[in-house]
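Consider the following assembly input.
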Amino acid sequence: MLKPLYIVIVGGGNIGYYLSKALLSQGHEVLIIERDIRTCERLEDELGSCSMRGDGCETAVLTEAGLNRANVLIATTSHDEDNLVSCQVAKHRFKVPRTIALVNNPSNEKIFKKLGIDATISVTNTILEHVEQEIPAHSLIHLLTMSGQMEEVVEMTITRESPAIGKSIAHLRLPADTTIALLMREGERPRIPGVDAVLKENDRVIVLTSLDSERNLEKALLG
Amino acid sequence: MEIDKILVAARGNGVDQIAVELACKIGKKSKAKIYIVYVIEVNRSLPVDAIIKPDMELAEKVLLEAEEYAQDNDFEVDTEIIQAREVGPAIIEVARQNSVDMIIMGITYKKRFGSFTMGNAVPHVLEEAPCRVLICREPKQ
Amino acid sequence: MPGTEAIKQNKSNIVIMGCGRVGGKLAAMFDAAGHKVTVVDLDAYSFRRLPPTFSGTALIGDGTDEEMLRKAGIENANAFIALTQGDNRNVMAAQIAKHIFEVPRVICRIYDPLRKDIYEQLGLESISPTEVFADLLFQRLSQKI
């Protein structure tokens, strides 16, 4: 195991609690600072003597918590301003080498970094990253749905793996109700392609299609 | 009531002697084994296993006196110094480990902010101890 | 202090976060002096403290939110003053104003004197009403006795 660290966690909510549990099981020394006395009692029952009641932004409380020898401070409350101040006080007053803040409002992530917090964790952004990993870049962008009809206009970009590269539009196996209406190529004016137009990588096309044909269209242009 | 194991939680507060005497009296008939434990409360600014000389010296002195008294009265004695963040939970832990039948603690008459207080450890032990608890308070002046 | 001159002479843009007694009064004072004032508060009810003559802007919103500050015109502000009840909210908003929007003059109220010292050291101009008022009382009483 790595050298055990002294880790101070501000906020004994769900995140603070489970985080402490995990860190304790890894052999680290953990202290949770929590404002609410009831939550403190619950933590004490569950985890033993590793919590302290107090405001994790107050110098006196942090002194008592022995922040001077802490290796890491993690602020996990549901208030971004409190997390920011805990981390800044830890860093500047107690010279804690590493400060980590939970960011509840994702737009604060950038601000916290600029204000010197070593690491930020945004639940929203973390989930987003996963979503983006699971789902490949949007292959088809819906631009317009014709009102009252099943027809729609979509935009697609020909990717490197596309089976359509090097083929003329006439040779693509497009669904019957689908028409490539516009071809946009870097360095060229957008134009209405003829049936002999040959597609290249990175071409963007605007396609008139129907909801039912979407899948076959994707197959023909993107594989 | 069978009392075979008694835990005296020494505090270095001057009431320890009375607590040990009590333990001897209560355990006389059953020839109880007496555990005497001293808990050093370590400030969070230090690692829990830090060596704090003055505290250690006091603990050793208190335990030695208590041990001598109990041995002079023919008791089997076991002493231990423990370092912990809080006294109460540490006492409970020792009581559990040794399955003692009774915990005896001595307290001084103390006031805090104008009201009588027993501190943190005694209420914790009273609330959490799995066995009988005997608290002996010194006389009020 | 940078920005002081501007506030004295010309019409300045002033953003105040927190419309409590102090915030409301300060807003009214700058407004009466002819400056362009915007007050931001989470609670619309607090705007009752603004006088009927107040000609500035009152916005409901969170002053620690970057977008909200933009709406309040922070990008063109000459001064930003953080006056909510929460020290941490003030500290955060004031730092956003100073370091993200580079407002020339930023003042932050911090009740907790210890916290104030830390942020003063970090270059944030701060006032602790706790200190100021205790000092004032102490001086007055010391003189009379």
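Chain B is about 35% helix and 30% strand. Ask yourself how this observation constrains the way the partners meet.
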